[in-house]
Amino acid sequence: MEGFPASVGLDDWTEQDKERLIREIEKAHREWLIAQEMLNQVDTPDLIDYSIYFFKAAEAKYIYLHKLGKAIGLKLSHPVQWEES
């Protein structure tokens, strides 16, 4: 994500960076939930394809940000439930 320290070392992250990352994680979580709901509700073939793409992209973003948050020592409120391949 743009503007975050390139290094994952805990000392490289300011409190402002951490707060911004938490907001990004929360936003990505909401996007992921919306994508799940959309995927469950669509029935048009073109929309199904789009919904799958949107869901996978939202999931990848959320997983990445969540792992980054854990790597720098953030205590995150929502658990991540996904299967890694």
Automatic annotation (TrEMBL):
<dbReference type="Pfam" id="PF10704">
    <property type="entry name" value="DUF2508"/>
</dbReference>
<protein>
    <recommendedName>
        <fullName>DUF2508 domain-containing protein</fullName>
    </recommendedName>
</protein>
<dbReference type="InterPro" id="IPR019644">
    <property type="entry name" value="DUF2508"/>
</dbReference>
